[in-house]
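Field reference: sequence -> structure
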Amino acid sequence: MTNEEILNTIIEGVKEGDEDKVFEWTNKAIATGIEPLVVINDGLTKGIQAVGTLFGNGTYFLPDLLLGAKAMDAGIKVIEPLMVDQKRDYVGRVLMGTVEGDLHEIGKNIVIMMLKTAGFEVLDLGVDVPAKKFIEKAREFKPDIIGISALLTTTVGRQKEIIELLEEEGLKGKVKVMIGGAPINQNWANTIGADGYAEDASVAVDVAKRLLA
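Structure field:
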C-alpha cells in the first residue's frame, strides 16, 4: 500500500469510530516509515475533522462524535511516545476545566481532543475545578485561552465567578475566556463578559482560532 492509502485508512477508521483499526494502521504507518507528525496531521486530524463536519451538518450525533474521538485517541497513544524529541509548533495554549460542583466531562474531553488535533497545546484541569485553581493554573501555564465548561443550570454561575476573579487578579484581557455547556448560550456569554462561546465541539476550534486572530 502507498503512504496515502495507509493514511486514508486511518482517516476512515476515525470516521467509523473503530479504535482497533486506527491503532493497527497507525502502527503500520510508523512501521512503514511515515513520520509521526504526518500521521497526526494527514491521518488522525483529517479523520476527526471529517467527524466534526458530519456532526455539524447533522449526519453524525454525539455518540458518533465520541466514538471518533476515542478512535483518534487510540492513534495518538501510539504516536505520543515517538514525539518526545520532536518539537511541535503550537497554534496556542488552552487551559480547560469543568467548574466546581460539576462532574460532566464528555463534551469537554471531545473539545480538548479537537483542539489538540488542530494544533493547540491543552492543559486539562479535569472536573469539579474551584475558581481559584483556574487562576493558579492560569498564572503557571500562561494560556492564551481559558475554556470553562458547565453542564448544570446550578453550576453555570461559576463561569461568571471565574471571570470576575480573573478581573480582580488583573488577568482579564491578558487571556481570552471561552465558555460552553448545555445550558449556555451567547446571551449568557455576553452577560458575564466571556470572549467566546462554543455551542458544541464542532465549532469550538473555530471559536478558539478566532479569539487568537
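Note: The chain has two domains: 3-83, 92-212.
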